[in-house]
Amino acid sequence: MDYPKSVPSAGLVDGKFVDEDPVAGKPGSLIPASWGNGVTQELLKVIQTAGLTPTESANDQLLGALRSNKLFVTAPQFDSGKAVATTEFVTRTGLQFSGFASYGASTVLSAANIGGVASFASNAPITATLPSINGIAHASTLHVINAGTGILTISPAANEQIETCNGTFGPLKLDLGDSASLIKLSNQWRLYGGSVSDRYATAHSGVVGNVGYQRYPSGNIDQWGVGTTDAKGEVNVSFPISFPNAFSSIVAIHSGGDGAMVIMYSTSATKQGCRLKVRSYTGDVSANWGVFYLAKGY
After folding, report:
1. What is the end-to-end Cα distance of the chain in Å, rounded?
2. Is 163 among the domain residues?
3. What does the alpha-carbon distance between residue 146 and residue 104 come to, in Å, rounded to a whole number?
4. Number of domains present in the structure of the chain
5. Of 99, 164, 167, 189, which residue is least crowded by CB atoms under 10 Å?
6. For residue range 189-236, what is the model confidence (pLDDT) as tens digits?
């Protein structure tokens, strides 16, 4: 669509229509029928494509057509062009969850789950296999929830990997009520949120077992372990990790067949450990007596 530049009699000035100037004796521009028909047809095509019937007396049909849902086509998923984005496309990109899907058995998720929530519920252990990163747009997200009592294992596709938020790699295991938020990066899925990510955060990190530790968001740290007395009834305790700031206290018990008292040498405590002594109720000491301890610090 353009001005009728090819029609000499149209009387355009600088390529545009002008009004008649009787004083100066200048005629106004003429609008050729072909140009008027062309403009009308351009507008009618927009109105008709929107499913409206052109009405001569209506002056707002073009606006109604532009506001309809029939003129604009939703771009393909992950399209990064400069086409107008429909609300359907925006919803699908993850500004809000694109959908909610429920599964009761092991399932291989697909690109259709991107931007949405995949909820699993099973009384037996099952597996959620993530979509392959091939063809998935950079920074796409996926949220997984375990609503069942069985362990839900989140695994990557073959020859791909999941990296946790602390730099380790491997499948994720979700207990009842756990959730995991993942983001697709250039060559992997990365865990970035959800309750399961707390296990990998410094504020919540820990090690399970008869020797281990647990960090808390407050900064407090619990550490525990076992030890065995030497011939003097003493135990050198080395904490699983060094307390970043200070050792606070320790509680220890004797593991044996009768009562015993466990004390800590008052000058032995450091951020790395301490020294305990065990005496029987009769005041005796001996080698190879077991001790369990719980230490606190921050």
Report:
1. 74
2. yes
3. 10
4. 3
5. 167
6. 999 999 999 888 888 888 889 999 999 988 999 999 999 999 999 999
CB 211 within 8 A of CB 238: no
Q: Are 162 and 189 in contact (CB under 8 A)?
A: yes
Residues 103-147: tens digit of each pLDDT: 999 999 999 999 999 999 999 999 999 999 998 999 999 999 999
Closest CA to 293 of 233, 220, 238: 238
Q: Which domain holds residue 292?
A: 206-297
Residue type (1 letter), 147: A
C-alpha distances in angstroms, 90 versus 50, 74, 78, 80, 224?
21, 9, 10, 12, 51
Compute the distance between CA of residue 269 and CA of residue 295 in angstroms, rounded to an integer. Answer: 11
Give, for 88, the enclosing helix (H) or strand (E).
helix 87-90
Q: How far is CA 185 from the centre of its chain?
A: 11
Beta bridge partners, 254, equal 291
Same domain, 150 and 230: no
Name the token pair of 116.
Answer: 């949405």
